[in-house]
Design a protein that fits this description.
54% of the residues lie in helices and 17% in strands. It is an alpha+beta fold. The strands form three sheets. Strands 3, 4, 5, 6, 7, 8, 9 and 12 form an eight-stranded mixed β-sheet that branches. Strands 1-2 form a two-stranded antiparallel ribbon. Strands 10-11 form a two-stranded antiparallel sheet.
Length: 381
């Protein structure tokens, strides 16, 4: 959908940017019409046939070509020049987004963000489903059959079920996210919130990439990501993203973040196929955008991970203070011993703590100055 801003008296957008990229994109769009199966699959998945050029789609939706192009690119699609490659569904999507802007429910910039966040998330999901899911299922069940002969009926059967499941999970996630936001103390905290942010990193992953076959490496990464995602979700955290040998998660409560970190260490240590793990956690104000987290707290958690010993968890001072404030860890072992002695003298049960904190040497951390990390461990009461 690449056009110039110049229009004639009738408002027609003139195609511009006819460079190699646009030519290739348009050629690909036109070329797919030569493959009958590819076209049938596209029509099946989109639920409509190609009818519009980008200009025609924008005009039918009642929006400018420039705005339609912004939405299209934000969703992650290549410019297609003026190829007739768009459907009624594309027109409807443009109408919906522009309608939200016209109604004042979203600003134009926010509508573009909605398109971008949705496009990025679903692109990854679609790639995974094709690479790991459909690829395996479309193996020809009988000699003489081709994969293409299997693909169409399989997609036809799976499509409505996967679509329903996607909407269900999205609604569940939306409900959970909305619940977290409305519980924020004030409007400012809805955007810039105080969270515990943790990084978990596989030790020596670069060396592994040189020794392992690609398939083995892929299986290791998938096992790590799956285990981490399950543990984070099971204990009330949120998996922000995975980066192959590293996962980033967040939790509203420091105790939850600590439990997740230790569970990750314990689980990976019990698996002989996995390398050692190290975790860094920081607590503080975090800016959230499009499902990701940003800010000094995130940077500090990353730095703590890089200096953490193998199979250990390092946390910052703010995180340690939060654990002591909530009663999950004692101020010090000496203070815990005094509390236990006082309780015994009074014939009462001593306080029970989940975690122990050991101060480490102060050290300079690149970009963040001098920090005093604490090592987090389980505490046996």
């Amino acid at each position: 959908m690449e056009t110039s801003g110049r229009t004639d008296g009738g408002g027609r957008g003139e195609v511009a940017g006819r460079g190699d990229g646009a030519d290739r994109a348009e050629a690909q769009a036109a070329g797919s019409e030569e493959d009958p199966l590819a076209l049938r699959l596209e029509q099946l998945i989109l639920g409509a046939e190609r009818r519009y050029t980008p200009f025609q789609a924008a005009r039918s939706a009642g929006v400018s070509v420039e705005l339609a192009t912004r939405f299209w690119r934000a969703m992650g699609f290549a410019d297609i020049g003026q190829a007739k490659a768009l459907t009624e569904a594309d027109v409807l999507a443009l109408r919906r987004l522009s309608g939200l802007v016209e109604a004042g429910l979203l600003s134009e910039a926010m509508a573009v963000q909605v398109a971008r966040s949705t496009g990025q998330t679903t692109a990854r999901l679609a790639e995974w489903q094709i690479d790991s899911f459909l690829e395996g299922l479309t193996e020809p069940p009988e000699p003489g059959m081709t994969r293409t002969e299997v693909t169409y009926p399989l997609v036809e059967l799976l499509l409505p079920e996967l679509e329903e499941f996607l909407v269900y999970v999205w609604r569940r996630q939306l409900a959970a996210a909305t619940g977290r936001v409305v519980q924020a103390a004030d409007d400012e905290e809805m955007v810039d919130r105080r969270l515990a942010v943790g990084f978990a990193d596989l030790v020596g992953f670069t060396r592994l990439t040189r020794r392992m076959e690609e398939e083995e490496l892929g299986e290791l990464v998938e096992a790590f990501e799956t285990t981490a995602a399950d543990l984070v979700a099971a204990h009330g955290g949120r998996l922000i993203k995975t980066l192959g040998d590293e996962v980033l998660y967040a939790a509203d409560d420091a105790g939850l973040a600590a439990e997740i970190a230790l569970r990750l260490i314990e689980t990976m240590a019990g698996d002989e196929t996995m390398p050692e793990l190290r975790v860094g956690i920081a607590f503080g104000t975090v800016t959230t955008r499009m499902g990701d987290v940003f800010g000094t707290t995130v940077n500090l958690a990353s730095r703590l991970t890089s200096i953490a010993p193998k199979d250990a968890v390092l946390v910052d001072g703010a995180f340690a203070e939060e654990l002591t404030r909530t009663g999950d860890a004692p101020v010090s072992e000496a203070a815990a011993a005094d509390e236990a002695a006082a309780a015994e003298k009074e014939g009462e049960e001593p306080p029970s703590y989940r975690f122990a904190l050991q101060p480490m040497w102060q050290r300079a951390v690149r970009g963040l100055g001098v920090v005093e990390p604490w090592q987090l461990r389980r505490r046996s009461n």
